[in-house]
Amino acid sequence: MSWLGLLEDDPLPWLLEDTDPAVRAAALVRLLDLAPGDSDVVRARADAMSADPILAILAAQEPAGFWVKAGPGYSPKYQSTVWQLIFLDQLGADRADERIARACEYVLRHTPTSAGGMGASGMLNGSPPPSRAIHCLNGNLLRALLGFGYGEDPRVQAAVDWAARTITGHDVPRWYASGTSGPGFECGANEGQACAWGAVKELLALARVPPSQRGTLVERAVDQGVEFLLSRDPATADYPFPSYDTKPSGAWFALGFPVAYVTDVLQNLEALAELGRVNDSRAANALQWLLGQQVVPGRWRNRHAYNRKTTVDIEHQGSTSKWVTLRACTVLKAAFP
Asked: What is the residue range of 12's domain?
């Protein structure tokens, strides 16, 4: 049965409404397989650039290319520079827009560490130290920069290389307990255990590296990452978590949009889908769980909307969500073509 046949109602007319051009543009490409250059897609993307939330986010940008304050741009969450670039990518902002280019160049001047990975820092001057390079931020920013067409930039390639080396443990001169402290997604923030949130972010980034350009080490990192994500049932998400918790974070089960450093079961499935691994039998329970999360036929709810935390509210907490529905349908289409 195709993905639409699994739903009790067709969400496409709702997702393709002109009132939400960013959703419409993404749905035309992801669900109807139109080319990015198709006239309907181009028109919808142009409309999205002149409407909220993209319009409001870009209006808050400083002329130099940053948001809120100069520097690496990790804080304040979730209004500073790195978050705006991540959210603009998730919203499908036009990579040809000069403001997008200015933001990408700003991030590439201030966020890479000397180790190659992107670093989290709230300081005003200089680049983050190598100890602040972390998988969740590196993956989020790397995915955005690749999506905005910066795959040939040496700084982006260095971030890809850092991700592959740290995932596999290959030729890394030093680990930092405050950040990524060992191979296989081990992270100081998770008491030195492997962090599934970081794994999902890095795999989503590596999924955007064209297969012909991945090379042996990147492919090895992808395979290792996929095996880690499928080593536990993604529907229960009982990956390693800190000793002060008694169960996996509830964020795993609160499907939302936009998606920042935390992740959810759906984003786990998105990573597997983009890498062509979502049909693995070990993902079957998570796919059934996802189908069971419909709040009305063919629609999902936004349970993690970041209201009053972002530059502009994108959707309302608890409301039926076009963005979460689009995310879910994209995964289901990959699993049940």
From this structure: 4-335
